[in-house]
Specification:
Layout: E1 2-5, E2 13-15, E3 19-23, E4 26-30, H1 43-49, E5 56-61, E6 66-70, E7 81-85, E8 90-93, E9 100-103, E10 111-116, E11 125-131, E12 136-137, E13 146-151, H2 153-156, H3 167-175, E14 178-183, H4 192-200, E15 205-209, H5 212-217, H6 225-239, E16 245-248, H7 267-283, E17 289-292, H8 294-297, H9 314-340
Parallel strand pairs: 13-14, 13-15, 15-16, 16-17
Antiparallel strand pairs: 1-11, 2-5, 3-4, 5-10, 5-12, 6-9, 6-11, 7-8, 7-10
């Protein structure tokens, strides 16, 4: 026997979402404010914002089963769902063609369950299911540092093995952080309204991966890109005085390094301008702003991990997470040393 739980139950925490829309047909997390979605053109950006990268449902329960159903028709592009019990290793399953998913054999005592939703594809939850007679409680979370991430498809991580194996999720796990991931495949164009969302979201560390979509779409050129980066990073700083902000320039893409993209910039030139913007802002006093060369995160020696010459495969995302964690450790140590001077 089983009992159904509505996704809008007060005991459920939707972590990593900017806003959650509950309707009689189900619940959908949004990674932009749905109540003001008209401020976020275009349809492509909105479609990506409706995907669940980094979003998880957290609850305490004594049920040995946690299951649920996604609204039909089920998107064939949906990636896996992960379940984490008491911060341990993730169990991963695919959503069935009928929208059903189920995790069984969980330990009987009360435990904290994190249900990580698919990072890619259209997903609306219609119900959760637990054992008949079991209980569900709202999780009392201790404070964790808040990690805010922005970027393109390389941050959205469609080709990661599962939701907990994206590089933002892996870095958050390494830091013990509460993740909000604003990785929008194909839609990282320094939108001013997205910058305002980042500005207003609480954060203890911000990682902004900038440039690759600008290269591909030509959304800025050699005249406009540097001012756009300066403005975007300054907007983030307005809402987060003193918080470390790390701009990450594009990872390697060998065929694009010296090839002009959608406007008049090569990928190498895009990378140089991201670095230049950070150095300018640091020269004007923003010493909590840092830049990481994307080639140190995934460079030419790991180009074989790019399955299409630009996007990492599953192994590539795990490599990125390790490299970024190492870089962040170096930067935070440097900040602590400066604070002590």
């Amino acid at each position: 026997m089983a009992q159904s739980i509505r996704p809008d139950l007060e005991a459920l925490s939707w972590e990593g979402a900017i806003e959650v829309v509950h309707t009689p047909d189900g619940s959908r997390p949004w990674r932009l404010p749905y109540s003001r979605i008209g401020l976020f053109p275009t349809d492509a950006l909105r479609m990506r914002a409706a995907m669940c990268a980094g979003v998880r449902i957290v609850l305490d329960t004594d049920s040995t089963t946690v299951a649920g159903r996604a609204a039909a028709p089920v998107d064939p592009d949906l990636t896996s769902i992960d379940l984490v019990v008491d911060g341990g290793s993730a169990f991963s399953i695919r959503v069935g063609s009928d929208g059903w998913f189920q995790f069984s054999g969980l330990p009987e005592p009360r435990k904290t369950v994190e249900l990580w939703l698919p990072q890619y594809g259209d997903f609306q939850l219609t119900e959760l299911v637990v054992d008949e007679g079991s209980q569900v409680w709202r999780t009392a979370r201790p404070y964790r540092p808040r990690l805010l991430v922005y970027g393109s498809s390389i941050t959205h991580c469609r080709d990661a093995t599962s939701p907990t194996r994206t590089w933002p999720a892996l870095v958050a796990a390494e830091l013990g952080a509460d993740l909000t991931c604003l990785g929008f495949a194909g839609q990282c164009h320094l939108d001013p309204m997205v910058a305002r969302v980042l500005r207003d979201r609480p954060a203890d560390l911000i990682i902004a991966c900038l440039g690759v979509n600008v290269y591909g779409n030509g959304s800025f050129n050699s005249r406009s890109f540097l001012p756009a980066v300066l403005g975007f990073l300054s907007t983030l700083r307005d809402g987060h005085p003193g918080v470390p902000i790390v701009a990450v320039s594009p990872i390697v893409s060998p065929s694009r390094e010296d090839t002009v993209g959608g406007a008049d910039l090569t990928l190498a030139a895009i990378r140089a301008e991201v670095h230049r913007a950070v150095h300018i802002l640091r020269d004007y006093g923003d010493t909590a702003l840092h830049v990481v060369d994307g080639r140190t995160v995934l460079g030419s020696d790991r180009a074989h991990l790019l399955h299409d010459g630009i996007h990492p495969d599953a192994e590539g995302y795990q490599y990125m997470a390790r490299a970024l964690s190492t870089a962040l450790g170096t930067l935070t140590r440097t900040d602590r040393e400066l604070d002590q001077d």
